[in-house]
Sequence to fold (154 residues):
Amino acid sequence: MNSPNFTVAVVYREPRAAVDWLACAFGFEVTMAIEGPDGDPNKSHYEMAMGGRGRIMIGGEWAAWTRSPASIGGANTQMTHVELTGDLDGHCERARSAGATIAAEPEDQFYGDRTYRAIDLEDHVWTFSVHVRDVTRAEAEAAIGQRIGASSWA
Fold:
C-alpha cells in the first residue's frame, strides 16, 4: 500500500524573493517555476524540494483568503515541519546567517528527534528535525507523564 502524500502551499507577498531566500536559508531547491503573467507575482507558482525529498508550493496572495503572515500581523494558522537528514545544528546556523529568526534553538525532544524552530522573512514558522534515537511509546509516556494514543507507535 502506498503512503499518503501531502504537500503544503505557502503564501508570500513576494514569492520570487521567498524562493531565493528559502534556497539560501533552508537549502530548498526549485523543482518548478511558473512566473506570473505580465510579471504579476500573485499569479506565480513555484515548487521546491530538499535533496529530492518532499515538496512545498510557493505562491502569492492571489485571492482575498490567501495571505502571508506578514500581511496579517504575523499570525500563523499552520507551521511547516521538515524532517532533515544530516546536521540539524549546522542547518540552524545556516538559517540564522540568512536572516531567519530562531524561535527555538536546537534541542533533543522526548520522542527521539532533535528540533529547532525558525521564522522566515514573512513570518512563516518552520520546524526542522532529525531523528537522533529510537524511543518506545512507554519511554515517551514516562518522559511527559501522560498517555499517548498512537496507532503505529509500539
About this structure: The beta strands are 8-11, 29-34, 45-50, 53-59, 80-83, 101-108, 113-119, 125-131. The chain has two domains: 1-62, 77-146.
